[in-house]
Amino acid sequence: MRVSVGILCEGCKRVHFISPSRKSGHVLYDRVRREFRLTCHPPCGQVTSFQRGMLKPYSVSAGALERGYADVAECRPMAEIERQC
Ligand SMILES: [Zn+2]
Q1: Ion ligand 1, residue ranges at CB < 5 A
Q2: If you ran DSSP here, which 8-state letter would residue 70 be given?
Q3: How far does residue 8's CA lie from ligand 1's centre (Å)?
Q4: Which spans in 1-85 are helix H?
C-alpha cells in the first residue's frame, strides 16, 4: 500500500489522487480564485473546487495510484489509521 493525498468527488464517490511528480490533467489550479479545481472523469464530469488544506492522505494500492483515482471503498483515509502531526 502507498500513501497519497487525494480529493473525494461527491458525484461518484471516487478519490482522485494528486501526484506531485506527475501532472494530472483533470486537476487545475485557478490562480484568480486561489483554489484547485478537479474535473471528474466522464460520465461523472462533476467539478469540485477545493483548497490545498482539504486534501487528505489516503492509504491506497499502487494500482489505484497508477490509475490516478480509486473508489472510496478501495482506499482508507490515513487519519483513521493513525493521526500524526
Ligand atoms: Zn466524479
Answers
A1: 9, 11-12, 40, 44, 46
A2: E
A3: 8
A4: 62-67, 78-81
Model confidence pTM above 0.85 = no
9-31 pLDDT per residue, tens: 999 999 999 876 555 668 888 99
CA 44 from chain center: how many Å?
15
CA distance 27 to 16: 9
Question: Is-contact 81 59, C-beta < 8 A?
Answer: yes
C-alpha 84 to ligand 1 mean position (Å): 29
CA dist 16 and 81 (Å) reads 19
